[in-house]
Amino acid sequence: MDSIHNLALQGAYKNVHLPAIMIGGCFVLVALVLSILLIFQHLRSYTNPAEQKWIVAIVFMVPVYASESILSLWNPRFSLACDILRNCYEAFALYSFGSYLIACLGGEERVITLLETESRKKLTKPLLEDKKQAVQKRSFLNFFIRPSVLGKDLYTVEKFGLVQYMILKTVCAFLALLLEILGVYGDGEFKWYYGYPYIAAVLNFSQMWALYCLVQFYNVTHDRLQPIKPLAKFISFKAIVFATWWQGVGIAILCAFGVLHKEGKFQNGLQDFLICIEMAIAAVAHIFVFSAKPYRFLSVSEYGKVTTQETKTMMKLQEGDMEKPAILDRTETHNEAPGTSIRESVQDIFVGGSEHVVKDVVLTINQAIEPVEKVGTRIQETFHHISLGSGKKEECSEAEVEKHVDRENIARSESKVSKF
User: Fold this and answer.
1) Taking a C-beta distance cutoff of 8 angstroms, is the pair 138, 152 a contact?
2) What is the CATH number that goes with domain 2-297?
3) Beta carbons within 8 Å of 96's beta carbon, 6+ residues apart
4) Direct distance between the N- and C-terminal alpha carbons of the chain, in angstroms, rounded to an integer
5) 302-356, pLDDT tens digit by residue?
6) Which residues make beta-bridge pairs with 323?
7) Contact 52/21 with Cβ under 8 angstroms?
8) Where in the chain are the domains?
């Protein structure tokens, strides 16, 4: 009976597979055309590199998701590889969104100044306050209760939350590939001897922490971010991240409880088909949320530079038989706008963006290793003090022995003198 049931389900899967590819392909085509068009508009109007390079990275999330999902739907053998690439880019897109918010606020230095100003406003009271109480208000607990009082520490926590997710997501993706090769990954299987539930738990916590850090950072800076309409951007971006992750977990849970068929092809195919549809919706939303219209007009005072060049040329004017010298003044004005060509914009996105990512990853790893180094240093110091203490005890014992021997020798010599 089970074999007949499985054959019937496989036949049903084959019957819906081709229509699903055709329908999903239509949605993917819409997503690709709209997203590439929006990216091309930003590259053509690349007047604010600090912001637009992160916008391009966020918008490019749709073509990556859509193309990998339709490829996985077409051939299930590519499902795991596509899932790994999709997860890696999702982590990078989340990091890009946080970097975009920082760029909209004027860069890291201005963000730190802004957060310190907000912290002073929250900590200031009519009565004089003890410095110890002010330091206590900057404790880690206030990240959940009153994040505005943390000052520049809030920026550090926010950056650490984004980068840790990017690192863990990438490491877990390749770990899943290794476990799949060894046959112990069990994609969608909530069993203790498979690696899937443990990796899912780690990624779930890491993603929730990263998104919570973004929310807390938004709560403190949303007044300054009003010109870019941050709420719509938050909703559109979080919808993509949450839809893909929780949707996959939800399908796995339904398959585990027998609500849906547990065959791997059906489970992964349903996830890929839904992502194809969702990416078309996300591409339409991005046209309005991450529009290139605000960047089409260059503000020279802020993003460009006007240079004036004066040239003087000596000329000779002939009047009859006489030649008189004359000076011709010529003034040329040049408007220099950075990153206005597609070649320059693409180069800035790949080179500038990668340098920023590497710098933040190295900084985050150092911040994570620093407490461990401090603990190791303290342990070494403790052992060093213990060894010194034991050395002193040994020296004291040796001195006591020498004193005891000297005393015995003196007593013997005195006894010999008394006998004489």
Assistant:
1) no
2) 1.20.1070
3) 54, 57, 58, 353
4) 118
5) 445 556 666 666 666 666 666 667 666 666 655 555 545 666 666 666 666 666 6
6) 318
7) no
8) 2-297
